[in-house]
Fold this protein.
Amino acid sequence: MQEENAKFNQGEVRPHKLAHTPIKKLLIEMSVPMIISMFMQACYNIVDSIYVSRISEDALSALSLAYAVQFLMIALNVGTSVGVTALISRSLGEKNFNNANDYARHGIFISTIYTIIFMFFGIFLTPKYYNMITNDAEIIYEGISYLSIITIFSQPFFYVLTFEKMMQATGKTFQSMITQLTGAVLNIILDPILIFGMFGFPALGSKGAAIATVAGQFIALILAIILNRIYNTDIKIEIYKFKLSLEKIKNIYRIGLPSIIMQSLNSVVIFGLNRILIDYRSQVAIIGIFHKFISFVYMPLFGLNNGMIPIVSYNFGARNERRVVDTIKFACILATGIMFIGTLIFLIFPDKIFMLFAADDHMMREGVKAFRIVSLHFIFAGANIILATAMQSCKREIYGLITEAFRQLIILLPVSYFLSLKIGPSGVWFGYIISELLSLILTSSLFMKTYKEEIKPLNN
């Protein structure tokens, strides 16, 4: 044991960055690489849809319907990674390096289970999924071509985020950014080549978009493994030491499950909203564009969120109440600024957005109207997400789950359905505003309870 702890003496120095660097400088330093990399992730998600929209509106609708499954994959991946990241950072704050390594190994194990599940879905269930939503043969064909590849070859998607989160947990956000940028840029380059057939490659359509995505993720995974071995001296993966611990799995999901459920609810909501809007011409494509394009707004916010988690978790483990509070306050200010910019973009430039997707006059008219309504919900979303994540990092994981279930299932879907019956598809977009506002009220009250019971007593 002494010999193993001695191996981590260098690792003990590195986390002091999370303990002593001024909060504003630290949060920006931790978040900016994540914001840049996630912004690029948003770019290649949108590039897929922009190129595919040139094939046909049916092809674009097929990708929009696939997004519900992709969002479920994101939910499982991000939620588990949130738990792994928080526990690694908290263990480092407690100077328990063996525990940090063990959580990293369990993160890899869980990713392996996910890849098996989605491989099964891709092989056996993709046609059933599309047939459950629509009878349109062209949408079904394009959708199966795209989604089956994404799910069958989901291995790099799950593993790459696990390795990136290991770097983020120890403050190596620049290296994590390089990994994500490499995968995103490669996808953007390959998209037109494989979709339309360039440089001697066949024109593969929607299937080409999927292959470009998977190829970018495979290269990103290789790079993530290499960078972890070279730069991440705080974590020693050493897979041969892995021993399954149900207690550690439980701890990971105690923190990560609320995020998984919160993100999974988005998948349920997207599916539900598609069903509500399926009878309105162009509305499925519009909501698909919306969920793709809001990633330009939300991905920077999630980058900020990811930069905040290690700081809050480390200092919570180190029982430093002041740094926990200062981090959350500054993160809320930055998040509100990001979302205000998003509101302005959706208010001022909605027509420019739809021009990217070769929208006809009807889609342009309906899309501009929708985007200007829904833009107002961004104002409330920034603080909502930051506070929910902060509660997860401070042992109040269930509160994040409560607020997200309230926002998505109790408010958004029922209100959107009711309003769509009364005023048409615009009711869906007003539903976003109502749900976000009411959710912020609930989230704020639960955070104050968390502060009094978990954060304030840290210095005692």
